[in-house]
Specification:
Helix content of chain B: over 70%
Order of helices and strands of chain B: HHEEHHHHHHHHHH
Structural class of chain B: mainly alpha
Radius of gyration of chain B: 20 Å
Number of domains of chain B: 1
Largest sheet of chain A: none
Number of strands of chain A: 0
Distance between the termini of chain A: 45 Å
Number of helices of chain A: 13
Oligomer: heterodimer
Strand content of chain A: under 5%
Number of strands of chain B: 2
Helix content of chain A: over 70%
Distance between the termini of chain B: 28 Å
Largest sheet of chain B: 2 strands, antiparallel
Strand content of chain B: under 5%
Shape of chain A: globular
Radius of gyration of chain A: 20 Å
Number of helices of chain B: 12
């Protein structure tokens, strides 16, 4: 049972988040063309990913250790995590650098709410909920195409996808928070997308040393590859255990880094 | 207005873009080198895995080295032929009304940003192309160096067409205000259509022919294919032809959208 104080705090944040969702929905629907195009954008992105692998598999039977059916499942996992990222984080963290530069961060820091929560979750991309449904649809479709699917192993994703998402958030937030220290580093944010690309390919394609790096120091491999491996490959419990351990660890480190970054913050609006 | 004055003015815009982009050197280096370098590594590793999985010496008539050379050049060329920054800036200026300050100047808005875009891409090309040149030489990957100048001419010619598209999208901001998502849609579509993801010749013949009939293949596939020896002179000339047709279309469209847009523009924020 939750302590009354903790319960009160939790309710407070849930109420705030509900208000964020409502405000975001109103703001998004106001510009209808933009709203429709945002849905369309992710469909193009999914199509590009699928199309790339479909074309590549016309010329090979295996990429890394997976065939086309297994790679489709991997893409399904990737799409689900990416859809969550698009809904809850993208809008907030992509504009982080701009908020710092324009001094908008000052307003958020003065609020009686955790500043990391405010800057990470203020906007919700309502238009991307449709993408989540598409992602789940593709994931289920690709699972049904697999010949020997162990449904018991599929349950691992309920644990590993949230861990992957937490790691994704931590890395992205840490890179975004760097803008407080570097001030004008808009393009550093684009480096994130290049790093994310490493995680957007099955980790088995990489050379051993690079595979170790993306599973440990720069854990983008834990985002989609490990949850997909839980479904597709023989169980590797130490990898799952590491993913489960790495997620809270990454969140704690991110929080510490945020506190450190704030000590370097020089208000742009003052 | 004399031609000399026109040239001098546009040279000024060109220099302005070079200076303003070099002002934040870290930002510029990340944009011009770090991003395409990381991207190249990911793509090259993918191609190594594909060849390992296929257990073949050649795929679609080309060896692994041809694909590595393609992946290396493609990411750097794609950085040159994409337009995010100036398009977002133009949209924002129209949306917020800050365009007013430019409209009253004795110059056209079209030339102001075209010269800046060319200046920015010129300096980016000089700095960023050092890397593929070094890596291609070190790894002894296939590249026909004598073809590089002609490919660069096509790249910059195509860039004018890309700017034409940006101008059309920006002009839509007169009617819809928030059109940033259209930029994302366009660039995502180009990501697929240019051949950045994989050489277009890997696609089924009919789809490949369709893609080649469009000017977008000049964004990556034709110049990179030409440099790496995948395609011959006739395809390059075909690229110039399709880009010219595309340029005429976007110029006419841009002219009408701009004229109609300025007429309906209320000068918000003035």
């Amino acid at each position: 049972m939750l302590a009354p104080e903790l319960k009160k705090t939790l309710i407070k944040y849930l109420v705030i988040y509900k208000a964020f969702i409502k405000a975001s929905a109103i703001a998004e629907i106001e510009f209808r063309l933009n709203f429709i195009m945002r849905i369309f954008n992710d469909i193009i992105w999914y199509a590009a990913q699928i199309f790339t692998f479909e074309v590549l598999f016309r010329h090979t039977k295996l990429i890394g250790s997976w065939d086309i059916y297994q790679t489709r499942v991997f893409l399904g996992v990737l799409f689900i995590i990416d859809a969550f990222y698009m809904i809850f984080l993208q809008e907030n963290l992509d504009k982080f650098s701009e908020k710092v530069r324009k001094g908008e961060l000052d307003l958020l820091l003065t609020k009686p709410v955790n500043s990391q929560f405010m800057i990470s979750f203020q906007r919700v991309s309502v238009s991307c909920f449709g993408n989540l449904m598409i992602a789940f649809g593709w994931f289920i479709h690709s699972l049904l195409q697999l010949q020997d699917v162990s449904w018991g192993r599929v349950l691992w994703i309920f644990l590993l996808i949230p861990c992957g998402f937490a790691i994704l958030y931590s890395i992205r937030f840490a890179i975004a928070a760097l803008s407080i220290i570097l001030v004008r580093a808009d393009n550093l944010q684009f480096v994130w997308y290049q790093l994310y690309r490493l995680g957007m390919r099955p980790d088995s394609i990489y050379l051993r040393w690079l595979q170790i790096i993306i599973l440990t120091i720069l854990p983008v491999g834990l985002i989609a590859s490990v949850p997909a491996r839980a479904i597709l490959d023989p169980p590797e419990f130490w990898v799952y255990a590491w993913s489960i351990l790495a997620a809270p660890l990454a969140l704690i480190l991110t929080s510490q880094f945020w506190k450190f970054a704030l000590t370097k913050y020089q208000s742009a609006s003052s | 207005m004399s031609f000399t004055a026109f040239c001098r003015r546009n040279l000024g815009f060109f220099k302005l873009a070079v200076a303003s982009n070099l002002e934040y050197r870290l930002n510029f280096l990340i944009d011009s080198t770090v991003q395409p370098l990381v991207s190249s590594v990911v793509e090259m590793v993918l191609w190594m895995a594909i060849f390992k999985g296929a257990q073949a010496v050649e795929i679609a008539g080309f060896t692994q080295n041809y694909y590595l050379a393609y992946a290396l050049w493609a990411t750097f060329v794609a950085r040159i032929t994409v337009n995010w920054m100036y398009e977002f800036r133009m949209i924002e200026e129209i949306d917020t009304g800050s365009i007013n300050g430019l409209l009253i100047r004795p110059m056209s808005y079209f030339e102001y940003y075209l010269s800046q875009l060319l200046g920015y891409k010129f300096i980016t090309t000089i700095i960023s192309f050092i890397f593929p040149v070094i890596f291609i030489s070190l790894l002894e990957l296939p590249t026909v160096w004598t073809r590089l100048p002609a490919a660069l001419v096509l790249i910059f010619y195509y860039l004018i067409f890309v700017y034409g598209m940006s101008f059309c999208i920006s002009s839509l901001a007169f009617f819809f205000n928030k059109v940033n998502s259209l930029t994302v849609t366009k660039n995502l579509a180009l990501w697929l259509l240019t051949g950045e993801l994989f050489p277009l010749d890997l696609m089924p013949e009919n789809i490949k022919n369709f893609f080649l009939a469009l000017p977008f293949s000049c964004g990556v596939y034709i110049p990179v294919g030409y440099i790496t020896g995948r395609i011959d002179h006739s395809v390059l000339l075909h690229g110039f032809k399709t880009t010219t047709i595309g340029l005429i279309i976007v110029s006419v469209l841009g002219f009408f959208l701009w004229r109609k847009g300025v007429r309906s523009y209320a000068g918000t924020g003035a």
